[in-house]
Structure formats: structure tokens, C-alpha cells
Amino acid sequence: MRLVFDAFPAKGASHELRLADSSTEKMFTVDGRTTISVLVAIPRGESRLLVKTDPAATSLDDALQLSTPRARRATGEPELHADLVSADPGF
Predict the structure, then answer these.
(1) 80 FRET partner, CA 20 to 30 A, in 19, 33, 48, 71?
(2) Cα–Cα distance between 8 and 76 in angstroms, integer?
């Protein structure tokens, strides 16, 4: 699937946003409103990706803001593989 969301830095700030699975990390530079789009392989069940920022926020005023993520059907070679937390899909 394709994971898509927008990232917004504090006014005038620049951040590095990192998306990671257990073995790979993708880095994005956020200098203004930036659309993040990455192909992710997701196993059946509950899984996760890590989201990290550099520099780390010291207050809410300088924190990187993220929009609600959207998942879209996609084809292609996954850039990240979400880490399985539980094989139970929860429904």
C-alpha cells in the first residue's frame, strides 16, 4: 500500500522526518508543508512503523505536525515493511 500524509514544521523551521521498520529507514527533509509518500508492505494483523524527527521537539510550538495518514492501494516494490505486532487483525 502507499502511505501518504503531510508534514508541517514550525514556521521557519526545518526538520528531518524518518520513517523506519526494523531494518530500513527512509528520510525526508521537511522545510514547509511536505507530502510524504512511501510504499509499505503490511502483513495481515496489527503492525507498526516508527516515526522520528530531528531535531526532537522541545515544546509543542516547535514540534513537527503530521496530518492524518491515508492508505492507498499501490503496486511496486515496497520501500518499508511494517513490523508485525500481532497476527490478530482485531475484528
Answers:
(1) 33
(2) 27
Do 63 and 57 touch, CB atoms closer than 8 A? yes
**Whole-prediction pTM:** 0.87
Residues contacting residue 12 through CB under 8 Å, at least 6 positions apart: none
Cα-based distances in Å from 12 to 29, 32, 78:
13, 8, 33
The predicted structure's pLDDT at residue 11: 82
Beta bridge partners of 56: none
Residue 56, pLDDT score: 87
Question: Mean pLDDT in the chain?
Answer: 93
Q: Name residues whose C-beta falls within 8 Å of residue 37's C-beta, 6 or more positions apart in sequence.
A: 2, 3, 4
Q: From CA 29, how far away is CA 16, in angstroms rounded?
A: 5
- The C-alpha angle with vertex 52 and arms to 50 and 55, in degrees rounded to 5, equals 175
Alpha carbon 12 to chain centroid, angstroms? 22
